[in-house]
């Protein structure tokens, strides 16, 4: 080693290095004085190097063996709790040349030892593969809504991608967008007829990546070939042994995909309702007979009993017809038989047959809270609907005022439409002239609201103090107080409020997990078993929607309090590939919140911090916003998708998001802006016109603060004359080109039009209205407005 290498290398101390002497200052201090001086700080020497656990080879091997055994025990316990139900696979084929039913038949013929079982009433096809010691249940939905319902309850999703296409069809793009918005289980991608040549295969792979460009990264990691029986077995092995990720909906509640539907003949009556027996494999969590169940599109129902029956597709059968001894091979006489058969008078022999199916009857008693929320449609029909009618008239009046105000403000800007705007309007409306004209009017109102937000023209036929009597001014939108219990509508007496929603959610999930620890009793049915649910008071017309070609029927078990009505707040974002239709606040939409699918008219508001939130008159095209509506309790985290349904067209995805909370105290304020023009300006003083038209209105709104577009702040000093001129004083000099504005606020509430009976009906027309609920509102009549408070039984701790 030369001199230069020695200079560049640092000296390393040896074993005999002596440590330097410590400082002698402060060595005689007490421990309390040292702790007071350190103030909780840790010496740097204790953080340098962690203490190494030096293990020898045998100890390391034992440690790895223990870790492996613990993981195996956890996996075994998880499989025991989840049961031995077949893997539920939804097959969605985007390739028109390979239908989903053909793919399932290809899987069933891939292995000679596999055995397929088909159900006559449902579209579920069972497949037992002894080679992998696994069972599969395949669903092949054909419609948009049936695909979403099937994927929501499935363990696996098998996607068959097309080959040789530049891009997907618009319907396929909408389907994939809706699937990503609602959440996906473990996804397996496959493709058929892939070229064998290396160069052609690489070209086809690049083309496929172009088609899958909008697909999520974690769901397009690997694409399997599906051309030979070996490829099919490879996919079956991956589905049976691969890691499966469950959604929040599948892990929180029990659910059952219906395979067989029958009427209960014991409770057969002539009423429109009946007791329905549905059979299938129970998945998810244990199901209690005392809890309610929910059928998407039909509503909530009670369970009469739960029967455990034999599986239609057992892996190991004790009664195998192929293994039976034929009658010709029986060599025994009656003398050797211990059982004596005595013939009757007709010469026939009577035997006592054993019953193979043993049914366990469950008590019909229901818990107290199930009947806690039962509302008669006739209750409160003639009490207070006046607020809703006044609000409807007020909204129509405001729309007219906004239209008149914009005609007076900018006639030239209204008469000019860019080519891009016209193309968007024409592309989003392909219907008749009336629907196209309504869409154009909505588009014009949305554009005016973006240019002059919340501005309305003061009416001349009615005084402003009467027109805006429900409004009030706020010194500060962020800090000014607003009582959440003030002037509540009558509908708030029909909902429930939670004192601590997070604690209630925690207790509901803990109760669901505690059911796993219980043994098989008369109350609970554990997942993995094939059961028959006796659902009481089911509408008889549900039998018309059951069949091999019908959408799958899924039964979900509800958690504690999930049948009670409350106010849900949902954070949404408009989908970029969704509908281009203009959606106003309180338009009727279809919501998929967890397992529930219902129609409601939400309020759109800003998703900001604070206790008060400004109403959005139209659904924002960018950014997150909050939708407030009446709906049953649902616990987050829950994915939410929103659809817009037309009369003659399928539902279109318009927004997606997550559930925020269930809080009726969320204050949504509707802002109305009164505008005026500076008539005469003298530095900080100005005479404003067109804001009011009589002296009494000026005196009424005198305490409200004024502001301008350029940031000036001011107040009303005094009225001038009797025709609405007002003298105002501002903090800075005012410009003649500026506008004087006044903000007024009013709290608004969502409409009570929740409907979960969506079977075979469209909830929304092209203009955002629903004739069924308009008739229901007319039947309810006008009711007087009242201030409603929560009853003690409505507040859940």
How would you summarize this macromolecular structure in one to three sentences?
With 797 residues, this protein is of the alpha+beta class. Mean pLDDT is 78; it is low at 328-363, 369-384, 408-431 and 761-794.
What's the CATH C level of one domain?
Alpha Beta
- Give the name of the CATH superfamily of one domain: P-loop containing nucleotide triphosphate hydrolases
- Could you tell me the strand content as a percent range? 15-25%
- Count of runs of 4 or more consecutive helical residues: 17
| CATH fold type of one domain | Rossmann fold
Please characterize this protein's 3D structure.
This protein has 797 residues and is α+β, with helices and mostly antiparallel strands. Among the domains are: 81-246, 3-Layer(aba) Sandwich (Rossmann fold); 386-452, no CATH class. The strands form five sheets. Strands 8, 9, 10, 12, 13, 14, 18 and 19 form an eight-stranded antiparallel sheet that branches. It has a seven-stranded mixed sheet with strand order 2-3-4-1-5-6-7, sandwiched between helices. Strands 28-29-32-31-30-33 form a six-stranded antiparallel beta barrel. Residues 328-363, 369-384, 408-431 and 761-794 have low confidence and may be disordered. Keywords: Nucleus, Ribosome biogenesis. Belongs to the TRAFAC class translation factor GTPase superfamily. Bms1-like GTPase family. TSR1 subfamily. Residues 19-29, 332-363 have a biased composition (Basic residues).
Task: Tag the structure with descriptive keywords.
single chain; 797 residues; alpha+beta; Rossmann fold; eight-stranded antiparallel beta sheet; seven-stranded mixed beta sheet; 25% helix
């Amino acid at each position: 080693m030369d001199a230069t290498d020695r200079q560049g290398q640092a000296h390393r101390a040896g074993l005999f290095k002596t440590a330097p002497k410590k400082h002698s200052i402060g060595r005689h201090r007490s421990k309390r004085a040292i702790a007071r001086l350190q103030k909780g700080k840790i010496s740097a020497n204790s953080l340098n190097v962690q203490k190494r656990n030096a293990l020898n080879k045998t100890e390391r091997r034992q440690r790895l063996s223990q870790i492996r055994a613990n993981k195996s025990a956890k996996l075994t316990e998880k499989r025991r709790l989840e049961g031995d139900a077949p893997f539920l696979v939804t097959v969605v084929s985007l390739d028109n040349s390979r239908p989903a039913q053909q793919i399932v038949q290809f899987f069933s013929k891939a292995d000679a030892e596999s055995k397929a079982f088909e159900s006559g009433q449902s579209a579920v096809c069972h497949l037992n593969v002894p080679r992998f010691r696994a069972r599969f249940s395949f669903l092949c939905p054909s419609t948009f809504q049936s695909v979403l319902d099937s994927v929501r309850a499935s363990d696996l999703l098998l996607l068959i991608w097309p080959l040789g296409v530049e891009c997907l069809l618009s319907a396929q793009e909408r389907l994939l967008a809706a699937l990503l918005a609602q959440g996906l289980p473990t996804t397996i991608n496959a493709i058929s007829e892939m070229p064998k040549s290396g160069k052609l295969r690489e070209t086809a792979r690049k083309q496929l990546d172009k088609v899958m460009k909008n697909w999520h990264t974690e769901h397009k990691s690997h694409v399997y070939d599906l051309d030979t029986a070996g490829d099919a077995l490879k996919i079956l092995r991956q589905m049976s042994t691969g890691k499966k990720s469950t959604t929040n909906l599948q892990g929180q509640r029990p659910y059952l995909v219906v395979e067989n539907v029958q009427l209960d003949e014991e409770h057969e009556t002539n009423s429109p309702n009946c007791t329905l027996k549905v059979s299938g494999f129970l998945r998810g969590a244990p199901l209690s007979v005392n809890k309610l169940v929910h059928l998407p599109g039909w509503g909530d129902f009670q369970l009469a009993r739960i029967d455990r029956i034999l599986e239609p597709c057992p892996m190991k059968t004790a009664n195998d017809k192929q293994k039976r001894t034929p009658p010709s091979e029986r060599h025994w006489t009656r003398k050797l038989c211990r059982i004596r058969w005595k013939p009757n008078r007709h010469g026939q022999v009577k035997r006592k047959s054993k019953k193979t199916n043993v049914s366990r009857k469950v008590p019909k008693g229901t818990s107290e809270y199930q009947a806690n929320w039962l509302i008669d449609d006739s209750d409160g029909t003639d009490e207070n609907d006046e607020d809703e009618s006044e609000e409807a008239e007020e909204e129509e009046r405001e729309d007219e005022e906004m239209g008149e105000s914009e005609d007076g403000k900018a006639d030239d800007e209204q008469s000019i439409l860019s080519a891009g705007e016209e193309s968007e309007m024409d592309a989003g409306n392909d219907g008749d002239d009336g629907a196209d004209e309504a869409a154009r009017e909505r588009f014009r109102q949305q554009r005016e609201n973006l240019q002059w937000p919340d501005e309305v023209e003061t009416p001349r036929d009615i005084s402003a103090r009467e027109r805006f009597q429900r409004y009030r001014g706020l010194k500060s939108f962020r800090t000014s107080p607003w009582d959440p219990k003030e002037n509540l509508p009558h509908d708030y007496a029909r909902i429930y409020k939670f004192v601590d929603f997070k604690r209630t959610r925690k207790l509901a999930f803990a109760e669901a997990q505690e059911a796993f620890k219980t043994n098989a009793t008369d109350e609970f049915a554990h997942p993995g078993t094939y059961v028959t649910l006796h659902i009481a008071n089911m509408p008889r017309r549900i039998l018309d929607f059951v069949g091999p070609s019908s959408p799958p029927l899924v039964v979900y078990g509800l958690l504690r309090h999930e049948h009670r009505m409350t106010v849900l707040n949902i954070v949404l974002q408009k989908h970029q590939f969704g509908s281009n239709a203009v959606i106003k606040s309180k338009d009727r939409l279809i919501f998929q919140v967890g397992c529930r699918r219902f129609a409601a008219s939400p309020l759109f508001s800003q998703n900001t911090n604070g206790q008060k939130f400004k109403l959005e008159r139209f659904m924002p095209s960018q950014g997150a916003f909050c939708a407030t509506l009446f709906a049953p309790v649902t616990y987050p985290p829950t994915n939410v998708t929103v659809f817009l349904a037309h009369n003659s067209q399928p539902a279109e995805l318009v927004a997606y998001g997550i559930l925020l909370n269930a809080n009726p105290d969320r204050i949504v304020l509707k802002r109305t802006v009164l505008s005026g023009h500076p008539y005469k300006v003298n530095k900080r003083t100005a005479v404003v016109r067109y804001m009011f038209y009589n002296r009494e209105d000026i005196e009424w709104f005198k305490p409200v603060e004024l502001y301008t577009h350029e940031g000036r702040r001011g107040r009303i000093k005094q009225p001038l004359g009797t025709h609405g001129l007002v003298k105002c004083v501002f903090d800075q000099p005012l410009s003649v080109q500026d506008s004087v504005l006044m903000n007024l606020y009013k709290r608004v509430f969502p409409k009570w039009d929740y409907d979960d009976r969506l079977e075979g009906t469209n909830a929304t027309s092209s203009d955002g209205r629903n004739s069924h609920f308009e008739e229901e509102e007319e039947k309810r009549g006008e009711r007087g407005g009242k201030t409603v408070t929560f009853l003690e039984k409505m507040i859940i701790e």
